[in-house]
Amino acid sequence: MSDHALLLSPNHNASPEPVDPRLVELKQMVLDSVVSPHSKRNYGRALDGLFVFSASRPLTRALLMEWRASMEKDSPSTVNVRLSAMRKLVTEARRNGMLSAEEASNLTGVPNIPERGTRLGNWLTREQAKELLAVPDRSKLKGKRDYVIIALLVGCALRRRELASLKIEDIQLREGRWVIIDLRGKGGRIRTVAIPIWIRQGIDAWTAAAKIEKGNLLRPLSKSGKIVGDELGDWAIWSVVEQSSKQIGIEHFGAHDLRRTCAKLCRKNGGDLEQIKFLLGHSSIQTTERYLGSEQEIAVAVNDNLGL
After folding, report:
1. In this structure, are residues 146 and 136 in contact, taking their beta carbons and an 8 Å threshold?
2. Against a cut of 0.70, is the pTM above it?
3. Which helix (H) or strand (E) holds 69?
4. Which SS3 state, helix, strand or coil, does residue 153 take?
5. CB contact at 8 A, 124 and 261
């Protein structure tokens, strides 16, 4: 490190704010560089955690590798978001003359945690799914729409094309609850999909704000937030998912991964395999079994209750 090495000194009061005023300024620069309130919160927490972990030591690669190792129990996506916040801090330090280009390159070279499962199909944990749903700014019209997109994909296991063509008239009451009625899916198979109440509430908020009463549920919006067409393309849906997932630190994540996430979470929550088949619109239960894959249960193992 140079003579002007950054000391990540935490304040020993209740606040994690660093004593070094340069770090206070750098942290604010990092937070100002991201638009999403969700990202601001995550980056702020990540940097506060780094300041506390450092225990007044200078910012070195060894320190950052130790910090990375200390988070081994957290999900790769969570750790990678924190590392991203650190890299932004280092970049701002270099731009403001606090670190040399060589020092900054060495520090930002701390690698991410590899994401697992991507090649075989990716999915989210329940906590990650909640994080993703929190990304859209629901105080704005676009945020209300994007929330509905993510909610219907992860909560109802819709395919991207099914969602793009979904009409308000397709959402009806059956047996005292809201459902998507007679949804035509892959291979022309027709199914009915139950809509959880929290998704219905999101749909109501979007349609009321957008003043939509019939026709396609989802509509394209201009940069100023005005409806500019009657149908949102399925690639636009893909873009919403991809951009939102990047904000929680997950790369190369698509709309179909949310369909898989819904199936996985249903199964982990004790959902009946045949009912999951109906939800997904699969032709056979064997297809659903292959889709979900096999997962060994360690916490509650099959050989715990042998009665021996």
Report:
1. yes
2. no
3. helix 61-69
4. helix
5. yes
